[in-house]
């Protein structure tokens, strides 16, 4: 328990500082106990059926390759059941790929001609599920053998903390800001760190990133327009990744716009409520105007896909379903077919800074888990299909 004493300060500035200090101390204690003993996030292991599904093979095939010695047994075998770490699954892809006749069957990463996919999740409506969608897509793709970079463009650092770095406590490493600032930027390769999740790296963010907004407003060197900063930073690490997922802050500032200029595709998450739909209309009006300004400045903006994703979908809620139908009627296939269902399985997982993919099925009500995971898988698969189309794959 935290001893609670009345706040001592009256002056707003001192009071705000005091509140922030108290909150940070509480968060630190809470996190330390949640992430004990080594204060770092780890990933659960995956059962044999889950592993077979991720690899796209049958259980029988797995038993066969183990028996033949093609694939080493996982370290963790309990009561005759095999449990695989994500790293073992990642390694299995490499081994199985060598034996496979179809190239890319187990290692679907991009080839030379297929360009890096830079997906931006954006909407200035707060809480439209940008960060939740970003982390679920990141985990979906990393588990399927893609090399993923999560790029956090939000100074709030939600995606950063979901990736196991707590921007409010121990983290004082380099952030995206250091790679895109105007004075003496560092190499993006120094900013990117691997996460505890095999296949997933993060370009972290913390409050400092908001300096980019201030600096861009006063920056006047035409050789370094603000909208080239993220694109150039990403170009430095391009070869290391297949897919970049950029989470945006809930505002249309320089960070979001510089992201738009770097992106190869846009996804606008949208909760089906009247307020969200009308705010999204305003957002896109503004975004369109800014895109025009960037194009006038000589940059060409081209997106492989630009889609709406319905998030926190409630199939039993009539008004929200009407709004969803309305959006589909207006924009047809601009609205993704799959939706992210509203689910306590998702909100409970995000409370623990986890995605549904990190949760063990038996720890939740199975039907709730299956529904939530099924919906996130469907969203992931649809995005994966669009990416394959961009790559010209069949
Ligand atoms: N599918 C879902 N089911 C239930 N809760 C959800 C779902 N998606 C998101 N949430 C919850 O909604 C809240 C807002 O989600 P999230 O932080 O992803 O939104 P955001 O758009 O990134 O917000 P911000 O604009 O502040 O960055 C979170 O508490 C999250 O747990
Ligand atoms: Mg967010």
From TrEMBL:
SUPFAM superfamilies: P-loop containing nucleoside triphosphate hydrolases. Signal peptide: none annotated. It comes from the Bacteria. Residues 117-285 form the AAA domain. This is Chromosome partitioning protein ParA. The lineage of its organism: Bacteria, Pseudomonadati, Pseudomonadota, Alphaproteobacteria, Rhodobacterales.
């Amino acid at each position: 328990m935290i001893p609670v004493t009345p706040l001592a300060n009256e002056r707003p500035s001192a009071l705000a500082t005091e509140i922030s200090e108290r909150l940070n101390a509480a968060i630190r204690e809470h996190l330390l106990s949640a992430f004990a003993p080594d204060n770092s996030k780890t990933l659960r292991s995956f059962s044999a059926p889950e592993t077979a599904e991720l690899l796209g093979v049958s259980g029988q095939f797995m038993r066969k390759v183990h028996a033949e010695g093609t694939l080493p047994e996982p370290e963790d075998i309990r009561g005759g059941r095999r449990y695989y770490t994500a790293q073992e699954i990642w390694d299995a892809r490499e081994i199985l790929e060598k034996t496979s006749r179809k190239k890319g069957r187990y290692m679907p990463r991009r080839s030379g001609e297929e360009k890096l996919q830079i997906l931006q999740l954006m909407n200035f409506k707060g809480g439209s599920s940008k960060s939740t969608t970003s982390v679920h897509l990141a985990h979906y793709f990393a588990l399927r053998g893609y090399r993923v970079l999560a790029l956090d463009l939000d100074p709030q650092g939600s995606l950063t903390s979901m990736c196991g770095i707590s921007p409010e406590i121990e983290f004082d490493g380099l952030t995206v800001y250091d790679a895109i600032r105007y004075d003496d930027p560092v190499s993006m390769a120094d900013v990117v760190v691997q996460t505890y999740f095999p296949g997933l790296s993060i370009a972290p963010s913390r409050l400092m990133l908001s300096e980019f907004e201030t600096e861009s407003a006063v920056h006047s060197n035409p050789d370094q327009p603000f909208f080239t900063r993220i694109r150039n930073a990403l170009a430095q690490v391009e070869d290391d990744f297949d897919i970049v997922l950029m989470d945006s802050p809930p505002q249309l500032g320089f960070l979001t716009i510089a992201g738009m200029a770097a992106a190869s595709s846009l996804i606008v998450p949208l909760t089906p409520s009247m307020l969200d739909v009308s705010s999204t209309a305003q957002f896109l009006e503004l975004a369109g105007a800014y895109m025009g300004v960037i194009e006038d400045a000589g940059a060409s903006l081209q997106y492989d896909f630009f889609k709406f994703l319905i998030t926190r979908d409630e199939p039993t809620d009539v008004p929200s379903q009407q709004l969803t139908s309305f959006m589909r009627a207006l924009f047809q296939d601009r609205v993704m077919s799959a939706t992210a269902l509203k689910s306590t399985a998702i909100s409970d997982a995000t409370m623990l800074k986890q995605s549904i993919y990190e949760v063990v099925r038996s720890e939740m009500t199975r039907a709730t888990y299956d529904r939530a995971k099924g919906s996130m898988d469907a969203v992931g698969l649809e995005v994966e299909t669009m990416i394959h189309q961009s790559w010209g794959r069949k």
